[in-house]
Each structure stands twice: as C-alpha cells, then as structure tokens.
C-alpha cells in the first residue's frame, strides 16, 4: 500500500530467567460466580483499540488520552478494555517504532475495509470493532465508548508457565456466556504497560514517549462456525517474550471476534501474576 494512503491526523471530529518451570494461576477481573444476573444483562467491557505510532507527530496525544482512560480519569460507568497496536508504516520517517509491527498494520487494514474507510491513519481508535474515531478526539472517543453495544464477557481462567526464559505458555479453560452464530475466533492478546521511550529522531525527536496497554503478541485460541455458550473450551498458546519482560506490567485480553465484520462479541482481561 503506497504512502499516499497513510495519514497522521490531529484532533478533529470523527465520522462515526532459569530453565526451571514457573507456574502460576490467575483469574479475570470479574470471575463467573461474582457476576450478578443484572451485570450479565448489562454486558461486559467495551474493547477500545488504538492504532498508533511513535513516528506520528499526533499519536502521543492519543496515547496520553488512552492512558488516562485506563487510569479511570473520566469516571466512566462503562468498563473498558484497552489495546494499543503500534503500526509500522511510519518507520520510514526517521524513527523506527520499537513496538511497531506489520502484523498490526494488517489488522488496521482489515478494519479500514470492514468499516468502509478510504485510508489508514494514525492515531485511530476502533470501538468494539464497530465504530471508529480519531484517537485524540476526546469527546468523540468517550461518546463512542459510552454508546457502544456490550456483551456478556467470556468466563475463562488462565494458567501461566515459563518453560524457558524466552517463552510464556498460557492455558485457558472456560466458556462463552453469549450465543454467537456465524464464524468467529477467540483471540488472546498479550499487552504491556508502563513503557517509556527516548525518541531520538523523527517527528517526535527529543520527546520522552510513554505507552500503556501495548499489544506485544496476539494469537488465536480457537475458531468455529458456531461457538455456543457454556460449552467448555480449553486451549493453550505459546508466546515468545521479549528482553526485559516483566509480568507485573503485563496482562492478557481474551476477546471474541466475528469473521468478516470483525465485530467483537465479548471480552475479558486477565492480569499476569507478578514475578512470573
């Protein structure tokens, strides 16, 4: 895809260790037996995905807004799950984003197609796979979150193992709570927060950039034409980990994404145990 199809947007209104095995177990933020019937009826978290780049001059403002939402600065009554994908198409512009990946560029391109957009740009936010806005448009983003359709979250528990210092094995056992007709994937994202980068070149030269909820790995737990609720699902994913991996700064997100539309039908977050 040519560079002319990329844009870096400012705010405007939007259109729409050792070889020993370490093992630990964690449960998600709201375990199955802790959710009331009323909470299940209202639905679970809203997934907010940010497409960003350290090479984009206006992305730092969006990253700050993203972090503020994660801290709860806006007192939203709607629970949110945040994931930031750093794309790689600004890497030619004098600074290579250390968290950038062509995989995330492809994911954004899929959203461009499913949302019938004309171009790819940063910073962009996609909410529940259904609507989008410019990532530093605070009013538009808050509106998209609070008006989003919510779905019952999956009910998974996770077991983590470090079979080698370079790997993390995640085993998930649980079930969905909502019926979903049509093909869908249960996806698992591994993210990291508290990242700080001294940007030495490019449009953000000499700035200290802070990034939270940065997706480092993404895998598919399972896929199917129909994923019925309450049916037991078990699967294991192996993630390679990076130099300086610190489990205390990391978590995983489990979310259900429909084929074709890329709409998200339920999600949950699981914090990794410290000292994993």
Question: What is this structure, in a nutshell?
Answer:
This protein has 276 residues and is mainly β. It is 15% helix and 41% strand. InterPro entries: DUF1223, Thioredoxin-like_sf.
> How many E strands?
16
Distance between the termini: 40 Å
Shape: globular
Mean pLDDT: 90
The strands making up the biggest β-sheet line up spatially as 2-8-9-14
Strand content: 35-45%
**Helix-strand pattern, N to C?**
EEHEHEHEEEHEEEEEEEEE
Counting helices, strands and paired strands, the structural category is mainly beta
Q: Number of helix segments?
A: 4
> What is the makeup of the main sheet?
4 strands, antiparallel
Q: What is the C-alpha radius of gyration, as a whole number of Å? A: 18 Å
Helix content: 10-25%
Poorly predicted runs are: 13-21, 27-33
Pfam family, one: DUF1223
InterPro entries: DUF1223, Thioredoxin-like_sf
Protein name: Thioredoxin-like fold domain-containing protein
């Amino acid at each position: 895809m040519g560079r002319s199809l990329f844009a870096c947007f400012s705010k405007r209104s939007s259109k729409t260790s050792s070889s020993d095995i370490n093992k630990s177990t964690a449960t998600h933020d709201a375990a199955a037996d802790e959710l009331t019937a009323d909470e299940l009826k209202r639905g679970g978290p809203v997934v907010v995905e940010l497409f960003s780049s350290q090479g984009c001059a206006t992305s730092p403002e969006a990253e700050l807004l993203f972090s503020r939402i994660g801290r709860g600065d806006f007192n939203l009554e709607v629970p949110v799950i945040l994931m930031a994908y750093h794309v790689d198409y600004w890497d030619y512009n004098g600074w290579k984003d250390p968290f950038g990946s062509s995989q995330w560029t492809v994911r954004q391109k899929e959203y461009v197609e499913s949302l019938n957009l004309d171009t790819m740009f940063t910073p962009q936010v996609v909410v529940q796979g259904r609507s989008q806005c410019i990532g530093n448009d605070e009013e538009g983003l808050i509106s998209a979150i609070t008006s989003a359709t919510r779905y019952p979250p999956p009910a998974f528990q996770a077991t983590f193992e470090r079979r080698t210092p370079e790997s993390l094995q995640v085993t998930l056992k649980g079930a969905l709570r909502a019926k979903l007709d049509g093909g869908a994937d249960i996806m698992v994202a591994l993210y990291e927060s508290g990242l700080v980068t001294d940007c030495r070149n490019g449009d953000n030269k000499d700035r200290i950039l802070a990034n939270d909820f940065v997706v480092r790995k993404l895998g598919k737990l399972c896929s199917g034409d129909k994923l019925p609720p309450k049916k037991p699902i078990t699967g294991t994913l192996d993630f390679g980990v990076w130099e300086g991996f610190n489990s205390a700064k990391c978590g995983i997100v489990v979310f259900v994404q429909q084929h074709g539309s890329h709409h998200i039908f339920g999600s949950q977050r699981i914090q990794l145990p410290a000292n994993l």
